[in-house]
Amino acid sequence: MNALTPGFRGRRRTVDDRVPPGQYLTEDFPVLSAGPTPSVAAATWTFSVTAETGERREWDRAQFAALPHETPTVDIHCVTRWSKLDTRWRGVSVDTLLSGLGTDAVFAVAHSFDGYTTNMPLQDLRGGKAWVVTEYEGKPLPAEHGGPARLLVPHLYFWKSAKWVSGLTLHTEDRPGFWERAGYHDYGDPWTEQRYQEGF
After folding, report:
1. From CA 63, how far away is CA 65, in angstroms rounded?
2. Which CATH superfamily does the domain covering 21-27+44-187 fall into?
3. pLDDT tens-digit readout, 26-85
4. pTM of the prediction?
């Protein structure tokens, strides 16, 4: 199943319709990180989902590779003001990873191997809106862009798409992550320019 950016459903949207306010288009893929690129071996990478009840699921690389995969083509928008259109990825929908999990959680926190975290409402990871991806443009995801795997949540600013992702924890209350505690907006909608908290 392919997931396509809204620009490919119905009437084809113009470039201007696809670039949020305050953004500029780039053909490059800038590398931005809060710290050095961690060394995460693809062969030993694992991913887990832990509910607020304590129920936990974990997949090793082989188990993750056996899950149904999708190939979303999406536009991405960085809080540093660049946007890149029609990026192609391959990964597993978060819907698949959460399927059948008993939870009353309304928030999620993504965790990375370098200790980075970022938060979002759980509904923003469901309904075909988010993936854990291991390939970019038909090749294994490079380490500088989050390989062996990163979260992909393209409708939010790109800091929410955590690099080197190791798991999700589900919560009944909001738990701000690394950049959110540093003054970035708790939600991060590029279309309303939710870059920073008020007063930051």
Report:
1. 5
2. Oxidoreductase, molybdopterin-binding domain (3.90.420.10)
3. 998 988 766 678 889 889 999 999 999 999 999 999 999 999 999 999 999 999 999 999
4. 0.90
